Amino acid sequence: MRIILRPVEDTDLPIFFAQHQDADALWMAAFTPPDPTDEAALVAHWSRLMREPTIIYRTILAGDQVAGSLVFFEMFDQKQVGYWLGRAFWGKGVATQALRLFLAELPERPLYGRTAFDNLGSQRVLQKCGFRLVARETGYANARKAEIGEYVFRLD
Ligand SMILES: CC(C)(COP(=O)(O)OP(=O)(O)OC[C@H]1O[C@@H](n2cnc3c(N)ncnc32)[C@H](O)[C@@H]1OP(=O)(O)O)[C@@H](O)C(=O)NCCC(=O)NCCS
């Protein structure tokens, strides 16, 4: 499948919202917004990301379909990447291909990626792109309503 990244457009946001309603995806990602069903709040948040000059926000196209998104941002004084794919696109190498393309666009190093301790898919995506596990922390995960382990990965 041909994977392309392009800047996020307003018409992508309802698709991202639908992709964020999947219960298994929310459980995997764990560190989610407090109310993932609040479409107005999420769309407003993503609209800010699109317009914030320090943030790089990309739509992943698989063929001509919107497969998900990638984002580069700074948090805890660390430059971070994050991603989310619609469930129909899981298990096909899309996240790995998309993150590789994104990393080629980003000169900043080190780069960090954070996952729930048990989000094996996301951990594998990071490792396949050269990140390695550098810390184990804990944090409150809205989707689990609990403090859980959070793994920190770094790409030097
Ligand atoms: C995690 C996620 C991005 C993985 O995307 P994907 O396109 O299915 O990943 P890939 O196909 O590129 O797979 C990369 C590797 O991870 C493995 N993998 C993918 N999902 C997995 C899972 N649920 N459990 C275990 N391994 C998994 C694949 O087998 C592959 O490893 P391999 O090449 O050694 O076989 C996707 O499931 C997703 O968006 N989930 C919901 C949101 C989320 O968790 N975002 C990340 C928050 S940190």
What's the short version?
The chain is an alpha+beta fold and 156 residues long.
Describe the model:
The chain has 156 residues and is α+β, with helices and mostly antiparallel strands. The protein has one domain (3-155): Gcn5-related N-acetyltransferase (GNAT) (Aminopeptidase, 3-Layer(aba) Sandwich). It has helices at 13-19, 23-29, 39-51, 94-105, 120-128, and strands at residues 3-7, 56-62, 65-75, 78-85, 111-116, 132-141, 146-155. The strands form 2 sheets. The protein has a 4-stranded antiparallel beta sheet, with helices on both faces. Strands 5-7-6 form a 3-stranded antiparallel beta sheet, with helices on one face. The longest helix has 13 residues, at 39-51. The radius of gyration is 15 Å and the shape is globular. It starts with a strand and ends with a strand. The model has no long low-confidence stretch (mean pLDDT 97). Coenzyme A is lined by residues 25, 28-29, 83-85, 90-96, 115, 119-122, 124-125, 128. Coenzyme A binds at residues 25, 28-29, 83-85, 90-96, 115, 119-122, 124-125, 128.
Distance between the termini: 29 Å
Number of strands: 7
**Proportion of beta-strand residues:** 35-45%
Helix-and-strand structural type: alpha+beta
CATH class: Alpha Beta
What is the name of the CATH architecture?
Answer: 3-Layer(aba) Sandwich
Radius of gyration: 15 Å
- What's the order of the H and E elements? EHHHEEEHEHEE
